[in-house]
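Reviewers of the previous submission asked for a worked example of the structure-prediction workflow described in the proposal, so we include one complete record here. The input consisted solely of the amino acid sequence. No template or homolog information was supplied to the procedure at any stage.
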Amino acid sequence: MNSGLFPASPLPADAIEVGRIQEAFGIKGWVRIHPHSADTDALFASKVWHLEPPEPKFARGFSAFSGTVSVTVAEIKTQTAGIVAHLEGMDDRNLAEALKGVRIHVPRSAFPATPEGEYYWVDLIGLRVVNREGVDMGVVRDLISTGPNSVLVLEFTETTAEGETQVAERMIPFVDAYVDKVDQAERLITVDWGLDY
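From that input alone, the workflow returned the following structure tokens.
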């Protein structure tokens, strides 16, 4: 299928997986998108998506293409059914069905700029967190949404009573009351948070 319709292309070095194709939508080649984040600006802003086959555990029988391909987004919109998109040159439901599970990547450089004090989750993952006293709290492994705000999920190493080390998890609300500063250049977040919280 990728002989012409989906040209092979390398995955950009700054590519971020932002979602996947869930299923075909309608009869004219549209697809329903499952975004990985509630913030879908990158999906809507990028006119070119880089697609990879489904993860191996979901790829049984997948034959639409191999490697990485690039596609031009002809149209994308929000429906009651969620986010749907039409890819250039794909006007057949059968082609759309063949893309079920395909992973969608967008270069980080194509993300729209964020307002002052707002961040994409992907930019926070991997940052080291210290408190006001300079105590290392851990590294951001993930974020979760609790509705009104997000929560940083930190991973750190602790020593057990037996003297063994183990990986543990700490959560800190990502709100102004607890987050003093995010320094992306230094890859550091400073928080007002104690080890005993």
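The chain has a mean pLDDT of 90. We consider this example representative of the routine output the project will generate in years two and three.
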